[in-house]
Amino acid sequence: MTTTHDPLDISVDISTQEIILAASNHNIPLLRRLFRDNQTPIANPANVKDTDTGFTPLHAAIAACEVDKDTDAAANGVQVNGTEHAAAEEKAQDEGVETVKFLLHEGAIWNDLDLAGETPGCLARRLGLMELYDLMVDAGVRAELLLGRLDGYEALEDEEDEDEEEEGEKEGEVESEETADVDAEIVDAPELVTTTTTTISTDAPTTTTSNTDVTNPRYLDSTLTFQHDRLLDADQNGVMMAWESTIMKKSAQKLLPTPGLRVLNIGHGMGIVDTFLQELSPSEHHIVEAHAEVVAEMKRKGWADKPGVVIHEGRWQDILPGLVGEGVMLDAIYYDTFAESYADFRDFFSEHVIGLLEQEGRWSFFNGMGADRQISYDVYQKVVEMDLFEAGFEVEWEEFEVPKLDGEWDGVRRPYWSIEKYRLPVCKYMD
Ligand SMILES: C[S@@+](CC[C@H](N)C(=O)[O-])C[C@H]1O[C@@H](n2cnc3c(N)ncnc32)[C@H](O)[C@@H]1O
To answer: Where is the composition biased (Acidic residues) (predicted)?
Structure first.
């Protein structure tokens, strides 16, 4: 039997190999020629993929910055001393930096995954190439900010479609290939979000395949399972887990440094942060909770009778304007919801905090955005910092280790935390 090859496929394959090779040789003039080559039948040459490794040109350019001492020595037939090796490494990195900048400028996607599941930034970090890692983080921030702006722009243009958007259907309207990959991240960020590549979420789960199935309305309609160490939704997504207790304790302590303060917590979950807040003797303790089963459980546990506690049943989006209308003023606010988008979160701090928080007050949030991958966590820290700044807040971060998580994820649909350190934010009005 004879096999026929489509000549177009072969030439695409050759072009891909040429581009990947030029990227790993840090050969910018050749890359430029290949990208401009009208004969190269590739629509988006900066984002080709090697079929064996899944490497994009960015992966290839970064991987080539790792200078192996032994290979180096064998190739040159000489003993390479430490100084020579360091010089070779520095040279490779400098060239790598220029190549990566060039590729990003040509529209390379910052967070495409190779077959080992690494983004170019993950690869740089694993190889200890921190200048390249920082470049990739900055590229991620730019892409996410751009999408954030596009998101706002679309909402303004298309107000009639707001309901549809609430159903999590905002994405898909951004057309460029670069933005397509990160689209879901910016749109769906805070609580649980999925993307085609990396995941940005503040707390909980996503599936690796689809993000449309875990929306806030769907979650609020779902039946919950309360266990001693976790709260799960109907799809076994971890809504809240006991391993977060240290985070909740430190957050409560930051928010209520002295007794007698007025606090609002949005999202009761397992009641962990509310328990710590109660221990710090607030004079008023407002709790907003939207899920009927969580509300029933908190009432069963006697939360309605605790000192200073007022339970507000419903979504914060519906409750907060009423509190502002009643003139409620607070010294501290904590935000930790589930299955909400980054746009919701941004709306919360841009539009609602100002009406409720005293001038000297402070607020915090569960910072789990992108916590299943270090680079996503770093990107989102910068994005949120910029958005907070724009909304008039300054933020201080305290970093500490989270416990090692192994068995915790048994029976949970998706581990939503895989990084070593938590960064706890405390936000205040800018001077
Ligand atoms: C991650 S849990 C909070 C965990 C809590 N910090 C603790 O220490 O146990 C999120 C909670 O937010 C609630 N929630 C989700 N969307 C909400 C919304 N729009 N308004 C108010 N509560 C919401 C969920 O029902 C859930 O109880």
So the answer is: 154-183
Q: Which residues pair with 284 in a beta bridge?
A: 262
pLDDT for position 5: 56
Could you say which DSSP state residue 102 is in?
H
Report d(CA 384, CA 345) in Å as an integer: 10
Of all protein residues, the one whose alpha carbon is nearest to atom 27 of ligand 1 is 269
Cβ < 6 Å from ligand 1: which residues?
Answer: 203, 216, 239-240, 248, 266-273, 288-291, 294, 315-317, 336-338, 340
Cβ-based neighbours of 57, under 8 Å, separated by 6 or more? 19, 20, 22, 23, 31, 46, 47, 48, 103, 108
At 151 the pLDDT is: 62
- CA-273 nearest atom, ligand 1: 8
Token pair, residue 322, equals 């009423």
Q: How many domains in the chain?
A: 2
Q: Rounded to the nearest whole angstrom, what is the distance from the C-alpha of residue 321 to the centroid of ligand 1?
A: 18
Q: Are residues 232 and 377 in the same domain?
A: yes
CATH of the domain at 356: 3.40.50.150
Task: Give the Å distance between the CA of 149 and the centre of ligand 1.
Answer: 27
The parent domain of residue 399 ranges over: 217-429
